[in-house]
């Protein structure tokens, strides 16, 4: 089918089905609101085309050129975009279901408020892409590339981002609850109002991160690097920090109730006005730590090192309260 024949067909029903359009040049064409059913567009040139509100189902876009397309509000179901190039494309509010993005390149593209479900992202390139408010739950991003990407307000709950380098990403207000971030590099990243509840961050690098009002309840940080991290008014209740390196870290006015720090290094850490009630600090090193006005009620401190720590204004265990709590628990 030629470009002219396609244009004539779309002028009527605006629907193409069961057609092989491989290698066709549709650059700059207005294909908005068109429907493509079981259409092969492998290697097609769609650069600069308007695909706003278009509907693709079981289409083949492998190796296609989608650079600068406007696909705002478009729908892609069971579409193969493997190896496609979509530089500076607009996929705002687009919907993707069961799509294959293997080795697809989306540099500087926009996915603001887009939805992705059950898609494959093997070696997908999101360099400097804007993924603000993108929803992609329970998704494997472990081999994707996010260099310089904006991940503000993304909803990646339950997703896999193991060993990702996210040092240049904006994760402000991102929701990463129950996500697997083991071995991820977040050095120097801002985690303001970021939610990491019950997330797995074992062996992660968070050196120098900054976070205000971050939610880390129940998160797992075993063997992570938190040196010089700076948190304020964060909630890490019940989080596990076993054997972490958190020297010179700051946790100002944060809630660390029932958190666990066995064998952790917190030398020179600032835990000013923190709630450490019922925390486990067994075998932890808090040498020279500042615990001014911290709440140390019922803290476990077997073999804890306090050499040179500032505990003058810290609140120790309230024995009467502890007995009352034990009676209530019984």
From TrEMBL:
Signal peptide annotation: none
Family annotation (InterPro entries): 5peptide_repeat, Pentapeptide-BTB/POZ_domain
PANTHER family the UniProt entry points to: BTB_POZ DOMAIN-CONTAINING PROTEIN KCTD9 (PTHR14136:SF17)
Protein name as catalogued: Pentapeptide repeat-containing protein
Species of the source: Caballeronia novacaledonica
